[in-house]
Model the fold of this input.
Amino acid sequence: MSAGTVQGVLGPIAAADLGTVLMHEHVAAASGGVIRAWPELFGGTERLIARAVADLEAARAAGVDTIVDATTFDLGRDMDVIAEVARRSGMQIVASSGHWLMPVPTMATRSVEQLAAWFERELSQGADGTSYRAGIMKIASEQEITPFEARVLEAAARTHRQTGAAILTHSGSRHGTGELQADMLERHGVDPGRVVIGHSDDSSDVEYLSRLAARGYYLGMDRLPNGAMPEYGGQTVEDRLQMIATLVERGYANRIVVSTDDPIWAPLLTDEDQATHVRVNPDRVAFIPRVAMPRLRELGVSADDLAAIMVRNPAAWLTGGA
Ligand SMILES: [Zn+2]
Done:
């Protein structure tokens, strides 16, 4: 990938064309293979695509130009579905290589070398048996970094150095694992400016977040609507938005990126929990422009700082450009 561009599922996207970016979304977050093996679970592939297209068209109408789909293979990624949704909705989508939590045996027994070769192939040739390519890599850890998660992290670091692809993390920010990830990524030669430490808005600790930002990492404030649900750690939607305003006051507007992490279809959850997500966030993927941005303006975040958060920071993270 040439400098100043990122690989979208439908082709390279120049930094200047990314526009307003949500850096952690999901068309569907299931278990690996479920979309192909059990389409009756969601009423068939066509129904899933139609629902995703409708949600993403609404987000586009509200001003979102690009989403990063943070769905790895083990989270049920299906590149044919993602590509079709991108084509029909007009939303620019950057897909993810890498791996989430809870590996199945075939993943748990893989080496760093094998994982790195797989990630590199998904980024440079195609994924899920297609020629649609991932544009970033996701890594994950929760309360600690397990030996498997450390191998994924090292493989992603190697592949980052080789390909220049950006890294997105799932961190257990209530447990401070963002700093453990940061330490390990730096040891493996990764530039903090190409890493989003995800789920940072689950933290109530402004000092922890400030330390990561001061080291040059992007803080993924990516679960903003989920504050309405207690299982996301007790930080309310308002707490999360106030935390962003506080970090901006501290001078970190250039280190913040935002998203909803509210999958359009999420059978990792029970049907009841999925219904709760829709009830507490009826705006779905349009939540950021419709709800979060107006409230951040009220909290004193300037138009220029919002442009950094929505446009300039994600472009720099994804493409390595200034
Ligand atoms: Zn997610």
